[in-house]
Amino acid sequence: MSVWSRISNAIRGERLNREIDEELQSHIEEAVAAGRDPREANRAFGSVMRARETSHSIRTAKWLESLVSDTRFGWRQLWRNKVASAAAVLSLALGIGSCVAAFRLIDALLWRPLPIANASQLYVLSRKMIGLNGRPIEDGYWATPNFKLMRDAVKDQADLIAISDADRTDITWSSDDSVERAHVSYVSGNMFPLFGLEPALGRTLYPADDGAFGAAPYAVLSWDYWNHRFGRDSQVLGKPVHIGDQVFQIIGVGPRTFTGTEKGTVTDIFLPLSMNRMATEDRADWHRTFVLLKPGVDAATALEPIRLHLSAVNHAFGSACSTCYRGETQASIARYLNQTLIFNHGGAGISDLQKEYRRLLGVLGLLVGLVLLIACVNVANMMTAQAAARAQEMALRISIGAGRRRLVQLILVQSALLALLASGLGSGFAAWSAPFVLGLVNPPDNPARLDLPADWRVLLFGLGLTVLVVLLLGLLPALRASAVRPVAALKGGENPHSPRRLMRAAIAIQVAFCVLVLFLSLLFVTSFERLQNRPLGFSTDRLLLLETVAGKGQLPIVWSQTAEALRAAPGVESVAMSGWPILGRIRINSDISINGAPPSPTAAFFLNVSPGWLSTMKIPLLSGRDFRQEDTSPGSAIVNETFAKTYFPGQDPIGRTFQRGTNQPINKIVGVTPDVPDHDLREQNGPVFYVPINTVDDKSAPDPVEFATFVVHTEARNPLALADSLRQLIAQRHNGLRVSNVTTELDLVRDQTVRERMIATLAGFFAVVALLLAGVGLYAVLNYSVLQRRREIGIRMAIGSSRVGIVRIVTGDAFLMIALGGCAGLALGFSAARYVTSLFYQVKATDADMIALPTCAILLAALVATLPAVLRALRTDPTEILRAE
Amino acid sequence: MAKTDALQGSLDLLVLKILSRRPRLHGYAIMAAIASTSGEVLRAEEGSLYPALYRMEEAGWIRAEWVKKDTGRRARIYELTAEGKKQLGTEESRWESVSLAINRVLREA
What we know:
By secondary structure, chain A is an alpha+beta fold. Chain B has helices at 2-7, 11-21, 27-37, 46-59, 82-108; strands at residues 25-26, 62-68, 74-80. Chain A binds chain B through residues 1-2, 5-6, 19-20, 22-27, 29-31, 34, 44-46, 50-51, 54-55, 58-59, and chain B through 26-29, 32, 45-47, 50-51, 54-55, 57-60, 69, 71, 73-76.
């Protein structure tokens, strides 16, 4: 209570004085009433001021009172330089806010432990080996039979948990025709109990659900999905859900916090591992394997024996698979089986998003950190200048007995005020910008979803950052101010060069950081530009894509009749079909065997297309013809140029044949098309062949088609306008065909550049901010230096120094510093760029224009920033200056 | 003056004792009580009484409260806390031993 009352008294100093006065007044009144002489009663107190002073100091906390008065003084200082202070607070807020936002993203995606028990004991198992194609690969996916053997082998020290990626899957909640998509993950039955996850409703999956294929048709919903799809309706238990040709029964809802182990994706439905057909196949590597050490097992000593044990089991499993490596040489099989198992920490989950965005977020963190540093240097400069202007005041304070500690406190309090104001503003900025940036990772088909809580981790980071900023801002000016020698300062000036020396170093640092930001940003922006402007070779204009499924499959005739019906719909120009859209997610390769020889080392990718698909996509034919209605697969094929060059070098491919593996039916090439990027814009074009969508079995009977995509060229500018009516048109035919997803070719192309667009947008933004801040900083320093050297400039002018000479004096140092800083920045840029080359597309850090542009930008900014100072110097009136002296 | 000097160090004891006998007094009343009960021998000066009161309040021995007087003005009145009662005990026994010691010295001389 006592400390508290002192603290509150320190803050309410005026009120305390009033209370003391009131009590003393009341005392005097009593005395007078008791018959004392009023004058004598008054005198008894001695000096009222002194009585009050003694009483006051007893009732307040001295240190706090000085802090309060310093805060008031600091505030008045900031208030006096309103514009400068506002600029300082804004730039710091932008820096701090961006840093906190970047931290929130990085922490949420990469560092934050999953909301499970024992997250620190969890590891992810992956393996490194030389692939059958001779290239080193790292693989994190495992076959279920292998997983079961490994699980049993180490069951005394660790539990193995199988979890598949949460794929967007077509599901139906009833037998009507509406298909939805949900993220479905297959998990081993031990996952929920081992992770300590309690159901919010019903039950979770148990190890008993790991039975034979088809024995446990149960589904557990995630809390998030239960919430947004069913509004937390408890009637959901027992509801059937159709996935593929299976029917699952909802048996429970998972805990509220758990959204799966794949950061960036929220799992909607958990199914037992045993319910996936692939779980029985030796060759299907399809799920991840987590290793959870048993309680009490020490990771430092136990991991290596477990790893060796697992390696042995894995090797035995691989060697036993007789069907896995048909057609490979013994040597390459042995090389492939020589696999190194690796444990990675799995406590923070594992996902492709993490892999894809780890470096990008690192770069983002670097950029925002640099921007914050530039802002800090600016504000520190401002404070140094202000402190230098106050050197006389400081000297006076010291000579009348102010402690140097108190002076340091005065300046630190002022920088803390700036930093706190900026943090307040910055946290608002961070609250808005982190979800905004996450929203940029938004392929419309599959937007990233990440929990971005603002909890103690974020708070701690923000506080740490604020303290760091206070120290960066205040420490130097504070130490300088406290080192003031009163005699020198009061005599009319200490060495006037010392603050400027500090500020010159600041220029160099700022320019270095700024050039680094500009350089990296330019690399990213150029990458994005080049990627976006890569010639496609097909038209994305007015192309609607209806991804359609047909349960267990429908005959090709049903599909082509549906295409015919779509063609007759109003607003449709042409309709074609392909197995899947190009530049979508799907891509399947195939062995190529020429004249019955063993498959060639390079595989080719293929796509089933209908007649007219090439013309709908506006892909021209270089030679030969398009497919006809009677063409089937196997039978005829159209190939791209790279295919022709790879397998038939120097020959006319038309009329030649190939097989998709040894002893497979023959395909005759009927046409050749130019290369088009079919899967990934960043990749070189590979060999691709097209086969008719009408496939036949070995008795020439047509095969049912399970899924295909209708490619609709619309008359209207916006193809999505037709989406609903065409979807209904297909549903009304009741022929088993159902549209599972609608998109446009343009969106697919845009999706390809999501990551590049995001980093280019952000990097561009921060480059502008950095340049602006560095320009402002340079302007302020030069302006200050001209003001400081007014006397010198005046004298030089009076004794006949030329204008050029004056300009050189004013700007010479600065440009030297800019050159130094620029070189340092470029050097830093080269080493930083090496770390992120994987994010570039057809850009090299050593390209001449990549170096020239940031240099020009910083020089231009420097010219603009120095102009006002130079003009001010040239306008100096020597007579006025000398008279003032 | 000699009178005040004699009070040095024992002012706390006097205030605590007065407040233990008659709770809820204001500053002037405490001063008057010290004077009257000591037969006008001891006098607490205003200049030292109030700092002492504030100090003891901060120490938690006494607590203060504003009350309205008949004249309409406010007065700050003081009373003993539980901790103050304990402190009074210590101060009293300390005073006893000190005065005992002084008497012994005087007798020896």
